Amino acid sequence: MKRINILLAVILLSCGQIVAQDAQIDSIKLERIILDSIFLAEFEDSKLDQKPKVLHAEPLYIDLIRDLGARKGEKEWNVGMGMSDKRSFDEYELLVEYEWAPIDRLGFEVELPVTLFSKRGDLPTDISKPANRIESLKLATQWSFLVSEKAKTSLALGYIHEFEMVDLNKIGQGDLFKGNVFNPFFIAAKRWGRNYHTLIYTGPRIEKGFNQSSEFSYEIHTNLHYMIAGTRNFIGIEVNKEIHNGKMETVLRPQMRVGLAENLMIGIVTGIPINRDQEGLSSFIRIIYEPGFKTFH
Q1: Which residues contact 241 (CB under 8 A, 6 or more apart)?
Q2: CATH of residue 132
Q3: Dihedral, CA atoms, 221, 58, 36, 289, nearest 10 degrees?
Q4: Comparing C-alpha atoms, which of 136, 139, 157, 279 is closest to residue 208?
Q5: Which of 1, 53, 76, 162 has its CA at 20 to 30 Å from residue 20's CA atom?
């Protein structure tokens, strides 16, 4: 009888622990739901003179011109740094960009990307190290023409124009610019529930050098992110695909974004090429500063 009582006590104690653990899990889950709901309300709820906005995760490598559904007065500084393994040499990229929204749902951007190269020993005779250069003066705009709070979906059209610049060693020897790049694009983004985000960014890219024939390619960038409850931190993957001369080149870019302060975030990206013979792994860091941005105020 004594053994039976002990066994019953152990069973009851175990059941009590399971119930307590379940209650604790439910409590944590409820806390996350409440925190996430408050954050989404803070981010999306509009004032009387503002239009609705849906929170979407923004990819870190091929980023957007401005938030989808941007509101008047929003602005952001970005500084990006990256390194790519080109097998026979290393490629370093630097960029500085400023983006702002003069009116609701319309964003503009100015960017200055720089590319530097460093060789590794003696290069093969059939490969030459490219010259260092300021890639271009990049001007862009983006208009969110649909923002659906009910469907948690945003659609946008945009255009990027690049004034391509000559190599650094040729600056001062003639023309500063060597051609143009025309890049219209379309964006569709949807949030599934509170935390899962998908986005597609697609459009043609036409490169036209002065006194040269045009080069055409088509870009398709797809994204999937999971945003941590109650924050703008996320983990996800960006898949960059480019079709050129009948061949598709793909790079997988696992990434994460972490908030360092209310208006300061850092994004970390790794590049994994799928079918690029002359390219190895790459890394990229983006520092994002949004003057005046504040949540939970």
Answers
A1: 219, 220, 221, 222, 248, 249, 250
A2: 2.40.160.40
A3: 160
A4: 136
A5: 1
pLDDT in 10s for each residue of the chain, 297 residues: 555 555 545 455 555 555 445 555 555 556 566 655 666 666 666 666 778 899 999 999 999 999 999 999 999 999 999 999 887 788 999 999 999 999 999 999 999 999 999 877 666 656 677 889 999 999 999 999 999 999 999 999 999 999 999 988 888 787 889 999 999 999 999 999 989 999 999 999 999 999 889 999 999 999 999 999 888 899 999 999 999 988 999 999 999 999 998 899 999 999 999 987 778 899 999 999 999 876 544
Domain for residue 142, yes or no? yes
Show Cβ contacts of residue 267 under 8 Å, excluding neighbours closer than 6 positions. Answer: 60, 255, 256, 257, 258, 285, 286, 287, 288
Any domain includes 201: yes
- Token duo for residue 177: 């610019």
Instruction: Count CB-CB contacts under 10 A for residue 117.
Output: 15
Question: Rounded to whole angstroms, how far apart are CA atoms 184 and 160?
Answer: 6
Can you read off the two tokens belonging to residue 275? Answer: 């079918």
The domain tally of the chain equals 1
Residues 6+ apart with CB under 8 A from 282: 82, 83, 84, 85, 251, 270, 271, 273
User: Distances from the Cα of 124 to the Cαs of 88, 127, 263, in angstroms?
Assistant: 8, 5, 47
Q: What SS3 state is found at 35?
A: helix
Contact 250, 270 (CB under 8 A): no
Q: How is residue 184 written in tokens?
A: 């219209």
Residue 284 in domain? yes
Q: Report phi then psi at 10, rounded to 5.
A: -65, -40
Count other C-beta atoms under 10 Å from residue 145's C-beta. 9
Give the range of the structural domain holding residue 160, as residue numbers without chain letter.
Answer: 46-289
